[in-house]
Design a protein that fits this description.
Layout: H1 6-18, E1 31-37, H2 41-44, H3 48-59, E2 63-69, H4 93-99, E3 117-121, H5 128-137, E4 153-157, H6 159-163, E5 174-176, H7 184-193, H8 197-205, E6 210-211, E7 216-220, E8 226-231, E9 238-239, E10 265-269, E11 271-272, H9 282-286, E12 291-292, H10 295-305, E13 311-315, H11 325-334, E14 338-341, H12 351-359, E15 364-370, H13 374-380, H14 386-399, E16 403-410, H15 417-435, E17 442-449, H16 466-480, E18 486-489, H17 492-502, H18 509-514, H19 521-527, H20 532-536, E19 550-551, H21 556-569, H22 581-596
Parallel strand pairs: 1-2, 1-3, 3-4, 4-5, 9-19, 10-13, 13-14, 15-16, 16-17, 17-18
Antiparallel strand pairs: 5-6, 7-8, 11-12
Length: 597
């Protein structure tokens, strides 16, 4: 256990003094809830989901919610990248507990042990390491089975655990699967109804959309495969929660700070869900159905934001898919807002949209073709043509945006060296087209190794090996470097750890608790009798997956159908799939199309 240090208290007080919108509530008669982001303040405060949950809890009469961050982080960094807290080989967990203080809340500088509920917001798998670290430093047993009557109830939610909670499940008393808005009243009833920790957990298990890991027994075969899951008087699987009408509430920045990357911007969520169906995308499968906020509702949030910031960022998985986007942008510009848009869809970029961005001072447009060749875009269901991609970049250049940032994935299922060469050629052509309108235009390329994610059509695919992915990244660098295109990438070795956790099971939790550096993780797995390749290789599409306890609402037969279609279009072998007749026919048609190509 750490200790409360004067310097840690001062850090939180200085942050508090520079923030706008912080909620301060009296603790009397309320359930004190620590909302924890298991990474740095700089990373967590840019997360709109985290800020939204903070607002939701504090809007509830019976909760008082305060924010806690994992600083210094065990694994992670103070930026959006990932690194290690220390490179010291002599470092140990015990030394860390002695060297660092207890995690303290920003609002009242209280330790986690003072709170009745500790709630983690989990968006990224690599942040799982910081969950156990924060609990240990607070003197709370990191494994739920070891906690006592006086410990807080530890819950979690967020995209990562809604897809697959299992690697971190033994550390949690409960997981909220999906969106928190529908379950807020139920949470109040649970925690106000009794102060007994065990009864609270029992009541949580009866709420729709709440997964209590202790209620499920998982049986493993000697080779590691799951033989069966037994649920004790609870739902199997737990169904994901969705807020039906997003126009009934606002999702926007709650607390503003000048000390973060997006500190000059007020964020407003405009749409939930994405209907594009990209086969690699966790958000695309886990946030359905698509729900758009209407323009009048959005403008209420924009006008509130303009009281604090001139720049307003519109957030969604597919911003440019909003049916009234141009009307919204016109009204925002008339109101005096500078506009930023996330997740622009290449086939929806128009001269008006570019003009609105230029009027708002935008100098960089981000495009995500994801794959360089038409063949691979068909495989991943990224419904874009070469001409659409190049045309979008040309519109940006002609409209006055001098910088284009491109995002691609390497190591996709069925990818070949030729696909990667086409990726580089496409990037070079985009530079040429943009410089036809501005000779000082610049193009940058970001490459991410493909990580197979639970609850997607690629959940059964193997991750490409590090050597292959690294060589393909080098191919892109060698081709584009002489053209002056900056190529950045995420390290394939670190992405292996993310891939293991994305499709992992409960047996990984003790390994994470023993891991002090990312580089140690796979060796620690082997010492625990777990083979990393078991989690990285191809999985049986007809077997029981570790995340079988939760459901996003997308039927498994549909994921199998899309898995089979992708393999057929890519000319890969299609394993035997247990499918209904219509879905089997779709897969067979894709196989024939792939053979003819």
């Amino acid at each position: 256990m750490g200790r409360i240090r004067t310097q840690d208290v001062e850090v939180q007080r200085k942050r508090l003094a520079r923030e706008q919108g912080t909620v301060r509530k009296d603790w009397g008669g309320r359930v004190p809830t620590a909302l924890c982001y298991p990474n740095s303040y700089a990373v967590g405060m840019c997360n709109l989901g985290f800020q939204s949950v903070y607002s939701q809890f504090n809007s509830a009469r019976d909760f008082v919610c305060e924010r806690v961050f994992a600083e210094p982080v065990l694994i992670g960094s103070t930026s959006a990248g990932r690194g290690d807290w220390t490179g010291d080989d002599r470092y140990s967990i015990q030394q860390r507990l002695l060297a660092t203080g207890e995690p303290l809340s920003v609002e009242s500088q209280r330790p986690l042990s003072d709170f009745g509920v500790v709630a983690f917001s989990l968006s990224f798998e690599l942040d799982y390491f910081n969950v156990g670290d924060m609990l240990r430093r607070a003197g709370i047993a990191p494994l739920a089975a070891d906690r006592c009557d006086t410990d807080p109830v530890v819950i979690a939610g967020g995209p990562a655990v809604s897809g697959n909670p299992e690697p971190v499940a033994p550390m949690l008393d409960a997981v909220i699967v999906g969106e928190v808005e529908p379950v807020m009243n139920g949470l109040q009833d649970v925690f106000i109804g009794t102060s007994n920790r065990w009864e609270q957990i029992e009541r949580l298990s009866r709420l729709p959309g709440v997964y209590v890991p202790a209620k499920y027994r998982v049986a493993h075969a000697p080779d590691g495969r799951i033989e069966g899951v037994v649920a004790k008087d609870v739902a199997l699987p737990v169904q994901r929660l969705n807020a039906r009408n997003v126009n009934e509430f606002q999702t926007m920045s709650a607390v503003l700070s000048p000390d973060i990357e997006l500190g000059d911007m007020f964020l407003v969520e405009m749409t939930r869900g994405c209907a594009r169906g990209c086969r690699f995308c966790l958000a695309g499968y886990t946030s359905l159905p698509v729900r758009h906020r209407n323009v009048d509702h959005l403008m209420e949030g924009v006008k509130q934001g303009l009281q604090y910031r001139k720049r307003v960022g519109l957030i969604s998985a597919a911003t440019s898919d909003h049916p009234q986007l141009e009307q919204l942008l016109e009204r925002m510009l008339e109101a005096g807002a500078n506009v930023s848009l996330s997740s622009l869809r290449i086939d929806r970029i128009t001269p008006f949209l570019v003009e609105a961005l230029v009027r708002s001072g935008t100098r960089t447009i981000t495009l995500a073709p994801e794959a360089g060749s038409q063949r691979m875009r068909d495989v991943i269901n990224k419904r874009l043509t070469h001409e659409q991609i190049v045309h979008a970049a040309e519109l940006a250049g002609r409209g006055g945006i001098p910088n284009v940032k491109l995002y691609f994935i390497v190591g996709l299922p069925g990818e070949t060296d030729e696909d990667v060469r086409e990726l580089a050629a496409l990037s070079g052509e985009i530079l040429q087209r943009t410089r036809a309108h501005n000779r000082y235009a610049r193009v940058s390329v970001n490459l991410s190794p493909h990580v197979p994610k639970a609850q997607t059509a690629f959940q059964w695919e193997a991750m490409a090996d590090v050597a292959t992915t690294s060589e393909r990244i080098k191919t892109v660098q060698r081709t584009l470097g002489p053209l002056g295109i900056d190529v950045r990438f995420e390290a394939p070795a670190a992405q292996r750890v993310q891939a293991i956790l994305a499709r992992g099971d409960r047996r990984l939790a003790p390994v994470m608790l023993e891991t002090q550096r990312l580089q140690q993780f796979e060796a620690n797995m082997q010492r625990a009798g777990l083979d990393p390749e078991f989690y990285l290789g191809t999985m049986d599409p007809n077997g029981i997956m570790p995340w079988a306890m939760v459901s996003t609402g997308v039927p498994e037969w549909y994921l199998k159908q899309e898995f089979g279609r992708a393999r057929g279009l890519g000319g890969q072998e299609i394993p035997m799939l247990e499918l209904p007749p219509k879905a089997a026919a779709v897969v067979e048609a894709a196989r024939l199309a792939g053979s003819a190509a």
